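Marked as duplicate of an earlier ticket. Keeping the data here for the record.
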Amino acid sequence: MHHPLSLLIAASAVATSLAFLSPSSSLQETLHSSSEIDLSALQGEDKGAELYSQWCASCHGVNGRDFIQRTWKLGSQQADIERVIRNGYALLGMPAYGQLFSPDEVKDLSDYLLAKASESPNFRASPPPLIQATDLQLRANVIASDLATPWGMDFLNDSTLFFTEREGRLWVIKSGVKQAIAGTPDDIHVKGQGGLLDVMVWNDDAQSRPWVYLTYSKNHPDDDKLSATAVVRGELLVTDQGFSVPRWETLMVAAPYAKTHRHYGSRLAMGQDDMLYITCGERGMRDVHPQTLETYPGKVHRLHPDGSVPNDNPFVDEPGAIASIWSWGHRNPQGMFVHPETGEVWTHEHGPKGGDEINILQKSANYGWPEITFGRNYSGTIITRDTAKTGMEQPLYYWLPSIGACGMDIALGRGWPQSWQNNLLVGSLSFEYLERLVMDASGHVTDREQLLKGVGRVRDIARNSKGDIYVAVEGAGTIFHLEPILEN
């Protein structure tokens, strides 16, 4: 039996966005002052048709052309259409008309669009996928589908989302249009857990230009059987033809190169200290890298945005140490975010069996792998009997059994109810769901909940400036927007 969400994902494969009603006149003008026809003299479908003609047809074709033979990402019931007309949807190119159209005009326009959609013989009005949490219902809006292996996501702004596919492709969705960004690095090692991994977009306010940062598994220049986690950046150019990154510069290579194809990390985040944080896994060599300061793997690194090493990094003056190291003793950190209120850098480890854990990074801290752990080998054998040692940090939380943690962010902002404020959202690769972790005021986990059960391997979670949460799922090849349904 197919999971209900999987059926809706499949249906969305042919979906185009409800990114309609781009205005053909300036939004600085009022509707009625720009009207050539007295709308007050019209009613019902005639009024809806005239509204469409004046405000929608220049982008979406005459006579509702774009709304015939389509499946709608944000729902196609009356209430769904009216909601999107009122509130808009920036990422899909839909401006908000709630202050421009009266409630009756919103209804007339939605009636017209439904009538046009009904000209398609297979059209059935339906809501978007709905997710029921213990104390909240959410819409699971499908933003992108038919992807291979989505891995990382980040926002340039609320209407522009960048994301990677592990196979080596970089994409951007801008106002409902998905565009490939050509010219990704040509030495990506796509094997095992390797490939094109995380993406981060950063606006350099001092130079008034945006940069795109990538992490990926990099082939050794002389032997493509060897690879290492690498970090590059390139200036983002925006023209009438779209987005491009003409040149990439390498900021860091997490040497030494290795033959293993696992535990690359790797997440990127810009801290509130304007420093770049990078997670590097230990490449499956737990007895080699995590407990030495002389190699890159098994660490979190901290750099200036241009790749130079800050002089206040903890090991800058220690002989033999890698100067970019901020914290060490990590296994495979595949989740990281910067708390928008406290500035703390949160990470989680994709640990061994029973060893997934959450940490708040501290300067120079040793997080213990593999000297201390709550986990075991995948075979069930003991790694160590020690779960604590002097000089090594205890996790804020650990999972038993492991969920295969990947991706992490926080629910915060006006769009979420009080019961969800400061909750963590973490992806599960092993059990294929999104986990909600309820946090108390002291920062301890008090409850857990599974969302999107059976949807696929949840790889990343991203949050935009408004607090909207997006979830990338491999297997399903889909990016969702989780939209809480709040009572008015």
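See parent ticket for discussion. Residues 1-37 have pLDDT under 50 and may be disordered.
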